[in-house]
Amino acid sequence: DTPELKKSHKGKDPKLGLPAKGFLKSVLSKANAVLWVDPKNKTGNYGRLLAVLEVKGLNINLALIKRGHSYFNTRYAWPDGFKTYALAEAYAFEKRLGIWSYRKSRKRYLLRLREEGKTVYSTRNPYFVSKIQNAEVIDLSKYNGRFVRVQGKIKKIQQLRKGAQLIFLKHKRMKKGLPVISFENQRNWLGLQKIRKGDLLQIEGFATLYKKKQWQIKLHRAVLLN
């Protein structure tokens, strides 16, 4: 996700967007590009094609992030590649490259990304959790307020008001299961409309304490692994 050249809800940032455009033009002028598309995740929110762009064996998506021309939008690295892209972004952040190069820019992008929950941006950041946890044994109290990544099988699904659902994953110590709160628009976008008991899910979201009584995961992303 590179800086915007034109006005948008994210703001306009040609000072940092033009170097990203220049890098792309330079690379694409040298050879033909190959597009790698996930058939299960072809388009984004605005109907635009999602792909990994490769030129002469170079992953251009990864190169943009590692050079600081883009941040890592974690929604599009599932289930593979998370750690590779996260470490590339951490490298650019810690070396102060591109969008991370000066204080005002760093502050603006960190605030935006923290609000959108899309990035890890540094290995020292408390939200950097690359290891996938087993849903049956995870202790959410150790991850309060952090992103967690878990894999587990659905034990049951409970319908709530206004299209919300509690998806319970099998857990050895929680009688009902590990609760994951989700909403209808999320499930539609993630292609989870037809999930059912026994399905294997990989989930990422915030570990939260609901009403000071029940630990649960607030869904951010998910993928069906059946």
Automatic annotation (TrEMBL):
<dbReference type="Pfam" id="PF00565">
    <property type="entry name" value="SNase"/>
</dbReference>
<dbReference type="InterPro" id="IPR016071">
    <property type="entry name" value="Staphylococal_nuclease_OB-fold"/>
</dbReference>
<protein>
    <recommendedName>
        <fullName>TNase-like domain-containing protein</fullName>
    </recommendedName>
</protein>
<feature type="domain" description="TNase-like">
    <location>
        <begin position="1"/>
        <end position="102"/>
    </location>
</feature>
<dbReference type="InterPro" id="IPR035437">
    <property type="entry name" value="SNase_OB-fold_sf"/>
</dbReference>
